[in-house]
UniProtKB/TrEMBL annotation:
GO terms for molecular function: hydrolase activity. It catalyses: 2-phosphoglycolate + H2O = glycolate + phosphate. PANTHER family: PHOSPHOGLYCOLATE PHOSPHATASE. Belongs to the HAD-like hydrolase superfamily. CbbY/CbbZ/Gph/YieH family. Pathway: Organic acid metabolism; glycolate biosynthesis; glycolate from 2-phosphoglycolate: step 1/1. It comes from the Bacteria. InterPro entries: HAD-like_hydrolase_sf, HAD-like_sf, HAD-SF_hydro_IA, HAD_2, HAD_sf, PGP-like_dom2. Its EC number is 3.1.3.18. It comes from Xylanibacter rodentium. This is phosphoglycolate phosphatase. Pfam families: HAD_2 (PF13419).
Length: 213
C-alpha cells in the first residue's frame, strides 16, 4: 500500500459500524406512523446516499407519501438521541488512526450523515485523531459530488496531491473519482467485493492495518 500525506475517510461502514442504530431509528419512525418495518439487512442497502434518501427508500411511496416529512423528522429526532446506542468503531480502526497521527498525516471524515451527528460521532470516538469532520448540510452538495472532499482539503490546508479517499460503497468510489483522488475500498463495511468491483473499485483492504505501508 502506498503511503499518503492526507487520508479522507467515509464514516458509516468505513470507520464506524452504525447499521444497528440506523436501522433502529428507521424502524422506530416507521412504527410511530404504523408503517411496515424493514429487516436490518434490507436497511443496509438503503444506506449510502444520505439520510433523506435512506428514508425515501424505507417509507412506502417514498417522498410522495403525505406523511413522509413527519416520518423523516421522527427518524432525525430519534437518531440524534440514539446514535451511540450500538455504534462502535470497526476492529483495528482506532489503532490505524493512532498510527496515522503518529506519522503526522492529515485526517478528515466526509459523510452524507447529518452534520451534527457526524461531528458528534467523530468527537466521541476519535477525538484529536480526526482533524476535520464534514456532514450533510444545505450549502454543500452531498457525495458523490466532490464538494465535501474539496471542503475537507481546504480546511486541512492541503491540495489533492498526496491525498487518498477511503470508503466502503459505490458512492465512495464515485466520490473519489469525482474528486480526482485515488480510492481504497474497505471490505468490512456495507458493500461486498463483487458489488464494489461492478462499480469501479480497484484497490481493496480487508483490515484497517493494511492501509499502513
Amino acid at each position: 500500500m502506498r503511503e499518503y500525506n492526507t487520508y479522507i475517510f467515509d464514516l458509516d461502514g468505513t470507520l464506524l459500524s452504525t447499521l444497528d442504530d440506523l436501522a433502529a431509528s428507521v424502524n422506530h419512525a416507521l412504527r410511530t406512523y404504523d408503517m411496515p418495518e424493514h429487516p436490518v439487512e434490507d436497511i443496509r442497502w438503503f444506506v449510502g446516499n444520505g439520510v433523506r434518501v435512506l428514508m425515501e427508500r424505507a417509507v412506502p411511496g417514498g417522498a410522495g407519501n403525505p406523511l413522509f416529512e413527519d416520518v423523516f423528522e421522527a427518524f432525525r429526532h430519534y437518531y440524534m438521541e440514539h446514535s451511540l446506542d450500538n455504534t462502535v468503531p470497526y476492529d483495528g480502526v482506532i489503532d490505524m488512526l493512532v498510527e496515522l497521527k503518529r506519522r503526522n498525516k492529515n485526517i478528515a471524515v466526509v459523510s452524507n450523515k447529518f452534520y451534527a451527528a457526524t461531528q458528534e460521532l467523530c468527537r466521541h470516538f476519535f477525538g484529536a485523531y480526526v482533524d476535520v469532520a464534514i456532514g450533510e448540510r444545505e450549502n454543500i452538495r452531498k457525495k458523490p459530488a466532490p464538494d465535501t472532499v474539496l471542503e475537507a482539503l481546504r480546511l486541512l490546508g492541503v491540495g489533492k496531491e498526496g491525498a487518498v479517499y477511503v470508503g466502503d460503497s459505490d458512492v465512495d468510489v464515485a466520490t473519489a473519482r469525482n474528486s480526482g483522488l485515488p480510492c481504497v475500498s474497505v471490505l468490512w463495511g456495507f458493500r461486498d467485493r463483487d458489488f464494489l468491483l461492478k462499480h469501479g473499485a480497484t484497490e481493496f483492504i480487508s483490515v484497517p492495518s493494511q492501509l499502513l505501508p
